[in-house]
Each structure stands twice: as C-alpha cells, then as structure tokens.
C-alpha cells in the first residue's frame, strides 16, 4: 500500500491538474464555493469528459466511496488536516501544508 499526496493549492479558488492514478490519467478540477465555504472536486477522463462533478471535500472521509461504480480511481481518497485533524479545509488552508489530499493505492 502506498500513499500519494495530490498537488493541491489554495493560490486560486479554481484550478485543475492532471494526474495518473491506477495507471489511468485523470483531470482533477478544484473549485472553492464561497457561499457554502466548501472546496469541491470534479474528475474527468483523459479526453476531459466529466465523470463525477462537485464532490465536496471534507476531512477524514473517503471522498470517492459512493462513486465506485464510475470509471474513477478505485483507491481511497481522503483529505487530512495536519493541524488539528478535524477542521474542514478553508479557502486559505487547502494546500499541501495544512489540509492535504491523499490517495491510497
């Protein structure tokens, strides 16, 4: 079992990156919703066709568990807050230093 840290950032409130997980290339889009004060994640395939959209990012939960029937990464994806372990990611602390997004292969 291996843990991968996904390259998240809070520099912009809407950004995307491409990553290969389980041998498949995916595009991840992250968007901060200021009204609900939640980061949301969307996943697209290698042709940039959306697979799942607007998954809210909460700490200590398997973010992909309810989407296992879709062609998405099948491992565990979880956000962990390294400061106190329980606070949800905010607009300013969702980054590779504080609220970190892990993928377990």
What's the tally of helices? 0
Number of domains: 1
**Number of E-type strands:** 7
Rg computed from alpha carbons, rounded to a whole number of angstroms = 13 Å
Strand content is 35-45%
Helix content: under 10%
Mean pLDDT value: 93
Order of helices and strands: EEEEEEE
Low-confidence stretches: none
Alpha-beta content class: mainly beta
Q: What is the end-to-end distance?
A: 6 Å
Instruction: Please describe the biggest sheet, giving its number of strands, its sense, and whether it closes into a barrel.
Output: 4 strands, antiparallel
Taken from the alpha-carbon principal axes, the silhouette is globular
What topology, given as strand order, has the largest sheet?
Answer: 2-3-4-5
Comma- or semicolon-separated keywords:
3-stranded antiparallel beta sheet, 4-stranded antiparallel beta sheet, 105 residues
Please specify the SSE layout and strand pairing.
Elements: E1 3-5, E2 14-21, E3 24-33, E4 38-44, E5 50-56, E6 76-81, E7 99-104
Antiparallel strand pairs: 1-7, 2-3, 3-4, 4-5, 6-7
Give a description of the structure.
The protein is mainly beta. Helix content is 0%, strand content 45%. The chain contains no helices and 7 strands. The protein has strands at residues 3-5, 14-21, 24-33, 38-44, 50-56, 76-81, 99-104. Strands 2-3-4-5 form a 4-stranded antiparallel β-sheet, with no helix packed on it. The radius of gyration is 13 Å and the shape is globular.
């Amino acid at each position: 079992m291996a843990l991968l840290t996904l390259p998240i950032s809070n520099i912009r409130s809407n950004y995307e990156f491409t990553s290969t997980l389980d041998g498949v290339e995916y595009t991840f889009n992250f968007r901060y919703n200021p009204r609900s004060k939640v980061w949301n994640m969307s996943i697209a395939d290698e042709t940039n066709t959306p697979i799942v959209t607007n998954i809210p990012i909460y700490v200590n939960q398997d973010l992909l568990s309810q989407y296992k029937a879709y062609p998405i990464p099948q491992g565990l994806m979880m956000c962990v807050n390294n400061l106190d372990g329980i606070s949800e990611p905010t607009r300013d602390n969702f980054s590779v230093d504080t609220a970190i997004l892990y993928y377990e292969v």
